[in-house]
Design a protein that fits this description.
Elements lengths: L2 H9 L6 H13 L4 H14 L3 H12 L17 E5 L7 H11 L4 E5 L9 H5 L11 H11 L1 E5 L6 H11 L7 H14 L4 E8 L8 H17 L3 E8 L10 H12 L6 H17 L6 H13 L2 H12 L6 H8 L5 E5 L3 E6 L1 H11 L15 E3 L7 E2 L6 E5 L2 H14 E4 L9 E6 L3
Parallel strand pairs: 1-4, 2-3, 4-5
Antiparallel strand pairs: 5-12, 6-10, 7-9, 7-11, 8-10
Helix pairs in contact: 1-3, 2-4, 2-8, 4-9, 4-10, 5-12, 5-14, 7-14, 8-9, 9-10, 12-13, 16-17
């Protein structure tokens, strides 16, 4: 089989066979197909899409390209469930969600990704915690899940290795936004993780890969339909990404906000609504609860009681992080040497959230190239939500940078990304819809 024939078939709008997709995945895994040919096919898929069957074949082939986790011998006394977000700016939800759901009696083996395009990566954020090992062996990973109830790690080289290479190539070739490729990438990792069920957070808005509701619903349908073919039960929430989620964006800054949330000290309203909504849906999709309102109350109690913070602390310590991280997080996280407030006058009416993500990349908090090292300390804090009256006392945000020049550049980009007016814009919901799929 010639890979150029596969490229031509998809370039011309054809449907690839299961055998052609398996050939692609084999070549991804053993690197026998060069990156330029992979990127060519990725662009053809981006332009001509894939059917649900093609996406399901790609999902299962990538999942089976490496280790498939099996929890049947671990005698876990609760469902195995996870959440995945399609990506946004300031999306640190996983760090609150995993311990909250664990405190409610579920087990959350979360295998996350690095930054993709303009969005931040959960794995990168976790690595801002000193000593935290995002690449343990699977015995260690499984043991942490059993003991702490949750573990957030990165995608290791032997879990869906074909997806790992495809993911990195897509990140630098302008093909990130392909719905079937996003679908297959997400579900390959989740299938390989041995889940019982999954909740998807499909972001929509200026900071999301799906910038319109039509595209978000297309993504939701793709995830649920493809998952059904891969025998995985999935529910989805369509959530807003027209502004930064929470008050921070940037690796260490987001971890600090997540800890403050778990300590029940600072729970920014939009972040709180989306986090608890996703947590509650995980209890529903897993069968732990049948009523969403009761599930919401149970998840909120996991925070206010301190049990979620304890689960995070146990996870962190078990994966090599500081044993007292929850108590002394501010002593451990890197801090940028320069911090500068960004001021404007008027009501904040609109944000190009993708441009905010690109500003963080310019600061060094995200990647331009595969494998590029990140500055964990840089980013934004005190980010104002839409509708805020900005003035000399209330900044748009505070920039954290490695130098004065970097701070000035980020300030300029941030001001270009935002619009102010004489009146606050109408409020928009945090959660637009909940879609329950059937296996």
């Amino acid at each position: 089989m010639l890979f150029t024939d596969i490229i031509r078939a998809k370039r011309d709008g054809g449907e690839l066979s299961a055998e052609q997709i398996q050939f692609l995945v084999d070549g991804l895994a053993d690197e026998s197909i060069p990156a330029e040919q992979i990127s060519s096919l990725a662009m053809a898929i981006f332009l001509n899409s894939m059917t649900f069957d093609e996406a399901a074949w790609l999902t299962l082939a990538m999942a089976n390209s490496g280790t498939m986790l099996d929890w049947s011998a671990d005698s876990l006394n609760g469902p195995i469930v996870d959440k995945h977000s399609t990506g946004g700016i300031g999306d640190k939800v996983s760090f609150m969600l995993a311990p909250i759901v664990a405190a409610c009696g579920c087990f959350v083996p979360m295998i996350s990704g690095r930054g993709l395009g303009h969005t931040g990566g959960t794995t990168d954020k976790a690595e801002s915690i000193p000593g935290y090992n995002t690449a343990p062996d699977y015995e260690k990973f499984k043991n942490v899940v059993k003991v702490a109830g949750c573990a957030i790690i990165g995608q290791t080289s032997d879990l869906a290795p074909a997806d790992r290479r495809f993911y990195a190539i897509r990140d630098v070739t302008g093909t990130v936004e392909s719905v079937p490729l996003i679908t297959a990438s997400i579900l390959a990792k989740k299938t390989a993780a041995g889940l019982d069920s999954l909740v998807m957070d499909v972001k929509v808005g200026s900071g999301a890969f799906m910038q319109t509701m039509e595209r978000a619903r297309e993504m939701t349908e793709s995830i649920i339909a493809t998952a059904a073919r891969a025998n995985l039960k999935v529910h989805a929430l369509i959530t807003d990404m027209n502004q930064v989620l929470g008050t921070t964006a940037g690796n260490a800054l987001e971890i600090a906000e997540a800890v403050r949330y778990l300590r029940n000290e600072e729970r920014e309203p939009r972040l709180d609504t989306i986090t608890l909504g996703l947590c509650a849906e995980m209890l529903v999709v897993s069968g732990k609860e049948t009523d969403r309102d009761e599930a919401l109350g149970r998840c909120d109690e996991a925070v206010t009681s301190g049990r979620a913070a304890e689960a995070f602390g146990a996870m962190c310590a078990s994966l090599g992080g500081p044993k007292d991280f929850i108590d002394k997080y501010d002593d451990y996280l890197e801090k940028a040497p320069v911090s500068r407030p960004v001021h404007a006058n008027g009501f904040l009416t609109k944000i190009d959230t993708r441009a905010v993500g690109n500003a963080i990349i310019e600061l060094g908090g995200g990647r331009r190239r595969v494998g590029e090292a990140l500055n964990m300390s840089v980013g934004l804090s005190d980010v104002a939500p839409l509708g805020t009256r900005l003035d000399a006392d209330t900044p748009l945000a505070v920039v954290h940078a490695a130098s004065d020049d970097d701070a000035a550049r980020a300030k300029s980009l941030l001001l270009e990304a935002c619009e102010v007016g004489e009146a606050a814009p109408p409020e928009s919901p945090e959660i637009y819809d909940i879609v329950a799929g059937n296996r």
